[in-house]
């Protein structure tokens, strides 16, 4: 397979909670108002050290989107998804952006975010209200 080269970031960093691979900088957050099946999620403009899975159509709270799951290159964990395209005109701003699930991240201060008993475990995906 070869040697794994990871990009290192400087500043307030979000990283994979499993392997601590750097994923994103806090100033690249577009929105903190997203939700996934495990709780909160953040929309990022740029991320690093990920690989994308196959494109698929998903019905989310805000309509139909074409997305790809994204995986940490350090450990292979599924950490969120990339918006490939949005079918609703008012959702086009999401195209090319990434959602990282807070439950799967370590924050800039080293915190790990866990599912709480208040978290809704039923549905999926985002809500940018």
From TrEMBL:
Q: Which InterPro entries does the entry link to?
A: Yippee (IPR034751), Yippee/Mis18/Cereblon (IPR004910), Yippee_fam (IPR039058)
Per its record, what are the GO molecular function terms?
Answer: metal ion binding
Residue span(s) of domain Yippee: 12-109
What UniProt keywords apply to this chain's record, in alphabetical order?
A: Metal-binding, Zinc
Q: Which Pfam families match?
A: Yippee-Mis18
Q: Does the keyword Nucleotidyltransferase apply?
A: no
**Entry keyword Transit peptide:** no
The family classification in the record reads:
Belongs to the yippee family.
Name of the featured protein? Protein yippee-like
Q: Species name for this entry?
A: Zingiber officinale
